[in-house]
Specification:
Elements: E1 4-5, E2 12-13, H1 26-29, E3 30-36, E4 42-45, H2 50-53, E5 55-61, E6 69-72, E7 79-82, E8 90-91, E9 96-100, E10 103-106, H3 110-113, E11 118-125, E12 131-137, E13 143-146, E14 155-160, E15 168-171, E16 178-181, E17 189-190, H4 192-195, E18 204-207, H5 211-214, E19 219-225, E20 241-247, E21 253-257, E22 262-269, E23 276-280, E24 285-286, E25 294-297, E26 307-309, E27 313-316, E28 319-323, E29 329-336, E30 350-356, E31 362-365, E32 373-378, E33 386-389, E34 396-399, E35 407-408, E36 413-415, E37 421-424, E38 439-445, E39 452-458, E40 464-467, E41 476-483, E42 491-495, E43 503-506, E44 514-515, E45 531-534, H6 538-541, E46 546-552, E47 559-565, E48 570-574, E49 583-588, E50 595-599, E51 612-613, E52 627-630, E53 633-637, E54 650-656
Antiparallel strand pairs: 1-2, 3-11, 4-10, 5-6, 5-11, 6-7, 7-8, 9-10, 12-19, 13-18, 14-15, 14-19, 15-16, 16-17, 20-29, 21-28, 22-23, 22-29, 24-25, 25-26, 27-28, 30-38, 31-37, 32-33, 32-38, 33-34, 34-35, 36-37, 39-46, 40-45, 41-42, 41-46, 42-43, 43-44, 47-54, 48-53, 49-50, 49-54, 50-51, 52-53
């Protein structure tokens, strides 16, 4: 039966026929898109329909001191406002020149497309329970302004387009008797001239007589942001935007619970003089897993270039942890990380790249956007198998062939802050991704519900549940201690194909399955669609230790977590694919054996297939025919070189289409 909307925008049923309700996802209405200016013209394709639906695009050059420029469909292309000035609306014919059905187009104006400069753009599409744009004319006395947000706004940002006035900001946590100034550092200002001491409703908001919001005869634009209004996801009940507040303790710490992992935040002190801070996961909002965190900051109230700040906050699987000024109240706008839709093709979430190292800084185009995990292995040399992920941040690498803690290498993978790939440096430290003269395979993955998730957490030393955002029960969990005083610890892995919830494997060794007496994973119960359990052992949950977990699941037509029993010859592993497997990981569980990997970039063919092992530094082996092609998945052959189909032996693994 199709979904059918019933009473209330967030209520759905599957009965009664009628018009199917189309689910809304955050990736359809919001985008952080990074690009490099070319000084000419270019079209930005971020997947957001602005020409039909309407919305706002906010652009800031990242590496130069130019103003933040805002363009919206209510005022039209080429017309801009600057958040860090009081200037009225400007017009630049060669700035943002058009809103399209999949993004926007740019001209040659330096502030939005300067040759060689790097830019961040944030696009907010109009959508009930997310965002709206309204224009109106001031009358100098209190008036009500209608809107179409479909819920009570959590934040409203107002600017006169015809007069040089400040930006007025309403935030639900400050209340209707006060306002904030987007272009300033002031704490909240108590003044009925902002909102006439009247709270907004789901159909209108009220402005007082203040010049920032309602000068007689002046024209204004208002940007409205929803707060925990639901309206998204398959059931229409998921929140994607939150406007809240937090107060730090005496040393500046605060834990903020959103119910989801954020990808974007605007933060401002409401009880003290502070800048406005904007951060996002594309430019570098990382979980360092300690008290400092890390965020790459732009300040809407200044024209400053972006900078890395280790004293702001870091994202968690349920919100963010703040580390700011002590005993201070802050307001925020936070937006949920995407994607929310379950992927339907392996090519949208995985790609393998074979590369030759250059020994020089380079940008690697991965073919998926964004790249959330990179695993790199030299194919022609004895070198570490290195893992980097967006959540832990650039340069922070761990080796799956070693129990060593996370180490920062400044010249290895140097950034995830490009739109469809990552950057690499000279790689002079340990030659794991770009050494001159070496050849590599880079396996790249994107986080997506039902397929793959990454979680960072801090150990407590006692039995703990860890929240994840996979959305389904994970079938493969891999945990690695990063540091935090726990020293060198191995990689702990659990797979749903093992006989017991307490059966574990070690990714960094060839060891067979072993049974852990509940001190590590799945202490009291199997994992669920929202959490897994860790025990007291330092490998997964030592007090103050920092950890990363990688979670995988079977996703129809995309991935398959499998297990099988060897037959001593050949057998087909049916993964439900139609075009065969492009990446295959196999581990023997009843005896010793490597964690073997094959991929179609290096060759999965009817003859010999190159393989590497995640648990060793060895170069690839090309002299055996362990894997053959099959449209439903793959064929596994018993050969002595790998022993992945020994009669009566047991195996687990994962394949990606």
């Amino acid at each position: 039966m199709p979904l059918q909307a019933t009473s209330g925008a967030a209520s759905y049923d599957a009965f009664g026929g009628g018009v199917a309700a189309v689910p809304n996802y955050i990736e359809d209405v919001f985008s952080t898109y990074l690009y490099t200016g070319n000084g000419s013209t270019q079209t930005i394709t971020n997947g957001i329909d602005l020409s039909t639906k309407g919305g706002l695009t906010w652009i800031k050059v990242r590496d130069l001191t130019y103003a933040h420029r805002l363009f919206d469909t209510a005022r039209g292309a080429t017309k801009y406002l600057e958040t860090n000035t009081t200037n009225d609306q400007g017009t630049a014919a060669s700035s943002l020149t058009a809103f399209t059905a999949s993004g926007f187009s740019l001209g040659s104006t330096t502030q939005v497309n300067g040759n060689g400069a790097t830019f961040a753009s944030w696009t907010f599409r109009k959508q009930p329970k997310f965002f709206d744009v309204v224009t109106y004319t001031g009358n100098g006395s209190a008036q009500n302004i209608a809107h179409s947000l479909g819920s009570t706004p959590g934040c409203i940002i107002v600017k006169s387009t015809s007069a040089a006035t400040g930006w007025g900001v309403y935030h639900r946590s400050v209340g209707n008797t006060a306002g904030l100034i987007l272009n300033g550092t002031n704490a909240s200002i108590t003044d009925s001239g902002f909102w006439n001491n009247t709270s907004p409703t789901s159909t209108q908001f009220t402005v007082g007589s203040g010049s920032a919001v309602n000068t007689n005869g002046a024209s204004y634009v208002a940007y409205l942001f929803a707060h925990n209004a639901g309206g998204f996801g398959l059931t229409g009940t998921d929140n994607v935007i939150s406007c809240g507040s937090f107060t730090t303790d005496s040393v500046g710490k605060a834990t903020v619970s959103l119910g989801y992992e954020p990808q974007f935040a605007i933060i401002k002190g409401s009880s003290a003089v502070t800048n406005w801070y904007t951060t996002d996961s594309m430019r570098g909002w990382t979980n360092q897993g300690d008290s400092t965190g890390s965020a790459t900051i732009l300040q809407p109230n200044t024209s400053d270039a972006e900078y890395a700040n280790n004293l702001i906050c870091y994202p968690t699987s349920t919100g963010f942890f703040a580390n700011m000024a002590g005993n201070t109240t802050y307001i925020y706008i936070a937006i949920r990380r995407g994607p929310m839709a379950v992927p339907t093709s392996g090519t949208s979430v995985y790609n393998a790249l074979t590369r030759s190292g250059t020994g020089a800084t380079a940008t690697v185009t991965a073919g998926i956007t964004p790249v959330d995990l990179v695993i790199s292995k030299s194919t022609d040399n004895v070198r570490n198998v290195s893992w980097w992920d967006r959540l832990r941040g650039r340069g922070n690498q761990i080796y799956s062939n070693s129990s060593a803690a996370e180490i920062f290498r400044s010249t290895s993978l140097t950034g995830f802050d490009v739109q469809n790939g990552y950057t690499v440096g000279a790689d002079g430290d340990n030659l794991v991704i770009n050494a001159s003269g070496s050849t590599y395979v880079n396996w790249t993955l994107k986080r997506a519900p039902g397929f793959f998730d990454v979680v960072c957490y801090t150990g407590t030393g006692s039995n703990t549940t860890v929240t994840h955002n996979l959305g389904v029960v994970p079938e493969l969990i891999i945990v690695k201690n990063r540091g935090g005083g726990q020293g060198s610890q191995g990689w702990i892995s659990w797979n749903a194909g093992l006989p017991s919830r307490l059966n574990l494997l070690r990714l960094d060794t060839t060891a067979a399955t072993y049974t852990e007496a509940s001190a590590r994973l799945n202490v009291n119960a199997l994992p669920t669609a929202t959490q897994f359990e860790v025990g007291t052992d330092g490998e997964v949950n030592g007090s103050g230790g920092t950890y990363v977990a990688y979670l995988f699941a079977t996703c129809a037509g995309v991935s398959k977590c499998f297990n099988y029993t060897g037959n001593g010859s050949s057998q087909t592993i049916n993964c439900g694919f139609t075009g065969g497997a492009r990446w295959i990981l196999i581990k023997r569980t009843d005896s010793t054996g490597d964690w073997y990997v094959w991929d179609s970039a290096r060759g999965i063919v009817s003859g010999n297939d190159p393989h590497l092992s995640l648990n060793t530094t060895a170069a690839e082996v090309t002299s055996d025919d362990t894997i053959d092609t099959d449209s439903t998945g793959f064929v596994v052959n018993q050969v002595s070189a790998t022993n992945v189909n020994v009669s009566s032996a047991t195996y687990i693994g994962i394949a990606i289409a």
